Amino acid sequence: VTRTQFLMITETGNYKWCKIGTPAVTTRGLNEADMDVIAECMALIAADPEGNNEAVKAKVKALTDKYPLYA
């Protein structure tokens, strides 16, 4: 399985699909420990999008700096 998608309901009551895939993660060379960081980021945003926004941005920046798209 390379992708999972699930339905989310926004605050306004609209529906939106969220897709989660691993091909880009493995292409960039991320490992299992990095996937744990990604899962933590997703959980933080799901729990409190506004309150955790800056912390998640910093974690994502650290990962993308560690694994640049083009090296």
How would you characterize this protein structure?
With 71 residues, the protein is of the alpha+beta class. Helix content is 56%, strand content 20%. The protein contains three helices and two strands; from the N terminus they run ββααα. The protein has helices at residues 23-28, 32-47, 49-66, and strands at residues 3-9, 15-21. A two-stranded antiparallel ribbon has the order 1-2. Helix 2 runs antiparallel to helix 3 (49-66). The radius of gyration is 14 Å and the shape is globular. It starts with a strand and ends in a 5-residue tail after the last helix. The mean pLDDT is 82.
- The strand count comes to 2
How does the helix and strand content classify structurally?
A: alpha+beta
Strand content: 15-25%
Major sheet: 2 strands, antiparallel
What key phrases describe this protein's structure?
globular, 71 residues, alpha+beta, two-stranded antiparallel ribbon
Write the layout of secondary structure elements.
Elements: E1 3-9, E2 15-21, H1 23-28, H2 32-47, H3 49-66
Antiparallel strand pairs: 1-2
Helix pairs in contact: 2-3
Brief characterization of the structure:
The chain is built from three helices and two strands. With 71 residues, the protein is α+β, with helices and mostly antiparallel strands. The protein has a two-stranded antiparallel ribbon with strand order 1-2.
